[in-house]
């Protein structure tokens, strides 16, 4: 069992991540709190000096789930449901884009087809690790590949989306009017969010720490029963925790000591996937008459929390972006294993 880090390591990590996040935000970097914390924690982790408390990520996910779910007021929920055909198409296109980049990942990493398949599809770190284990692929390689892809997307997408969204009009169909902050209501909401997150974990719900509180807030907001809004400073603090957790994991598992060929394969395939899903997102947005930049972000090969927070930071149709990622998560859980079996049956996994 690894030794527990000393208390000063936790304090150093928190202070450096908060400082870096604040500086990035101050100079106008989109998603600055998360990106700054991510870079700071990764730098510390490579040197073996990062220490992030285990509960930091799940607590941050509960806050983010509530903060994002609150945007689903009744009118916004209606607009998202009207966009469901495009959302389903986007989820399928994202999975297909991942499959198309698998040969590139395999060639550079010199891995087997099974591992490359699960390493390349943008389905979330935990989801793809579980599916890879069931299929007999290398879980460690899939985890590193998915983690590095998440890091690439977190660094690349916010400035890319900010540039694409410059001067674009806000889509009022996905804009929510939230209730005022009420401390009693907020405390009750946080407690309820923690309870449903724990229940979701026990039931085996994918990404339960975020998804269960998000569904709770969606239900309350959609029925007009939301007791309080979630303040921006709390969402910013959750961004720091998310960035620190991701940076520490990457530094330990990917950038710090993993095979360089595996890291290179993951970065190259991630770059190809960013370009491919970006182009598909713009095309799908134009065809569906939805905001193209929001659709592009919805199809981004990053994690649901990171991309939804990016949408919130840039005021880009948060419920629509979240809808894309929620549906893709469900589709990956239901379809990716079956797709791999189909590839094997057709003799394409050589």
From TrEMBL:
Keyword Metal-binding: no
Transmembrane portions of the chain: 20-46, 58-77, 83-105, 117-136, 148-169, 181-199, 205-226, 262-287, 326-349
GO cellular component: membrane
An individual GO BP term: regulation of gene expression
Cited InterPro entries: AbrB_fam
Pfam families: AbrB (PF05145)
PANTHER family per record: REGULATOR ABRB-RELATED
Keyword Transmembrane helix (UniProt): yes
Keyword terms of this UniProt record: Membrane, Transmembrane, Transmembrane helix
Designated name of the protein: AbrB family transcriptional regulator
Highest rank taxon of the organism: Bacteria
Species classification: Bacteria, Pseudomonadati, Pseudomonadota, Alphaproteobacteria, Acetobacterales
Organism encoding this protein: Neoroseomonas alkaliterrae
């Amino acid at each position: 069992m690894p030794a527990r880090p000393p208390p000063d390591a936790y304090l150093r990590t928190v202070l450096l991540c908060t400082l870096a996040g604040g500086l990035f935000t101050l100079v106008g970097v989109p998603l600055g709190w998360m990106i700054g914390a991510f870079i700071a924690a990764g730098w510390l982790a490579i040197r073996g000096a990062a220490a992030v408390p285990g509960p930091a990520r799940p607590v941050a996910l509960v806050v983010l789930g509530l903060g994002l779910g609150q945007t689903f007021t009744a009118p916004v929920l209606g607009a998202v449901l009207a966009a469901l055909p495009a959302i389903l198409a986007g989820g399928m296109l994202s999975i297909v884009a991942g499959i198309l980049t698998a040969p590139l990942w395999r060639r550079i990493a010199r891995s087997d087809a099974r591992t490359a398949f699960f390493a390349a599809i943008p389905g979330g770190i935990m989801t793809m690790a579980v599916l890879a284990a069931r299929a007999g692929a290398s879980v460690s390689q899939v985890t590193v590949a998915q983690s590095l892809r998440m890091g690439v997307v977190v660094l690349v997408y916010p400035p890319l989306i900010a540039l694409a969204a410059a001067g674009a009009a806000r889509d009022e169909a996905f804009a929510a009017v939230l209730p005022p902050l009420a401390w009693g209501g907020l405390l009750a909401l946080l407690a309820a969010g923690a309870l449903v997150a724990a229940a979701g974990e026990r039931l085996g719900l994918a990404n339960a720490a975020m998804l269960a509180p998000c569904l709770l807030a969606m239900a309350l907001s959609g029925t007009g029963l939301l007791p309080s809004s979630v303040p921006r400073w709390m969402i910013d603090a959750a961004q720091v925790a998310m960035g620190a957790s991701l940076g520490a994991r990457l530094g330990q598992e990917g950038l710090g000591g993993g095979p360089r060929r595996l890291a290179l394969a993951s970065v190259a395939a991630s770059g190809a996937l960013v370009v491919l899903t970006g182009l598909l997102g713009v095309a799908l947005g134009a065809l569906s008459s939805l905001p193209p930049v929001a659709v592009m972000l919805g199809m981004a090969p990053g994690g649901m929390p990171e991309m939804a927070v990016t949408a919130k930071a840039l005021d880009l149709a948060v419920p629509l972006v979240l809808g894309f990622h929620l549906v893709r998560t469900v589709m990956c859980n239901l379809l990716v294993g079956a797709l791999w079996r189909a590839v094997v049956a057709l003799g394409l996994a050589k």
